[in-house]
Specification:
The complex is a heterodimer.
Chain A (H helix, E strand, L loop, with lengths): L4 H13 L2 E6 L6 H12 L3 H14 L1 E7 L1 H14 L3 E5 L3
Antiparallel strand pairs in A: 1-2, 1-3
Chain B lengths: L4 E2 L5 E4 L2 H20 L5 H6 L8 H31 L5 E4 L1 H22 L13 H22 L1
Helix pairs in contact in B: 1-3, 1-4, 3-4, 4-5
The chains are: A alpha+beta, B mainly alpha.
């Protein structure tokens, strides 16, 4: 495949746009009620969605709670650490 | 301590005994000292100020450089606010306004995370490798206090 300008653009764009994820991990300390509260309060999830994500964290060991730019996900991770939740960010699919 | 009850003005109130005020004051000071030292060799610090990038030590260190001082500062401010509220306890009554509740929920979480590390609690059903039943009771009691606070503001 010729290395045209068009192809280079597509590569740059996919590197910029590749979504990042904020992941919240299960821990034995945080109460289910508190994790739900954090998801509702910080992300503005409905009670039902917050409960679903909280249960995913609890039973699956982790849940993706947000997807977007790296900077955005770093802000979310810092906010989760503020609340005492164990959160990390990764590139989607990594 | 009894459960927190929500008042008409949005604040929450709980009855609290003198011994509980003393205990919470001590624990809050201890947690603030752990945050203040920010010794990354301390597993409790690794838990309250965790790595942001699970598989990238360099990016985690960079993230720390930009966020850790502010994050620790906010945790210390939460602790200071908890101590203020405890000093204001009047006739065994602890009253928390909206901003107080935010500081308490986060501050109690930090204290519980530190205690859990000291107790060796690593999994959901873990009773803790450390056989200090009194510390375990304190840990469970803090969970009761925190849960009661979440339920009171949800009410």
């Amino acid at each position: 495949m010729p290395d045209t300008l068009e192809h280079r653009d597509a590569r740059v764009e996919s590197a910029v746009d590749a979504p990042w994820q904020t992941i919240v991990w299960n821990d034995p300390v945080n109460l289910m009620s508190y994790v739900s509260y954090v998801f509702r309060t910080y992300f503005g999830f409905t009670a039902v969605e917050a409960e679903r994500l909280m249960l995913a964290v609890h039973f699956d060991g982790r849940a993706v709670v947000a997807t977007g730019s790296r900077e955005e996900m770093e802000r979310h991770v810092e906010a989760m650490h503020d609340y005492g939740l164990w959160a990390t960010l990764s590139k989607e699919g990594a | 301590m009894r459960r927190f009850e929500r008042q008409a003005d949005g604040s929450v109130v709980a009855e609290i005994e003198d011994a509980e005020v003393t205990l919470l004051t001590t624990l809050t000071h201890q947690a603030a000292a752990v945050v203040g030292d920010a010794d990354l060799d301390d597993p409790a610090v690794q838990r309250i100020l965790p790595d942001a990038y699970p598989d990238d030590a360099e990016a985690s260190a960079e993230f720390r450089r930009f966020t850790q001082a502010d994050l620790a500062g906010r945790k210390l401010a939460n602790a200071a606010r908890i101590l203020d509220c405890l000093e204001r306890v009047d006739s065994g009554s602890l009253t928390l306004g909206h901003e107080d509740v935010t500081a308490w929920l986060r501050g109690l979480t930090d204290i519980r995370l530190i205690l859990a590390t000291r107790l060796g609690i690593e999994t959901d059903d873990d009773l803790g490798a450390s056989a200090d039943p009194m510390m375990r009771d304190v840990y469970d009691w803090l969970g009761f206090v925190q849960n009661s606070l979440v339920e009171a503001i949800d009410a």
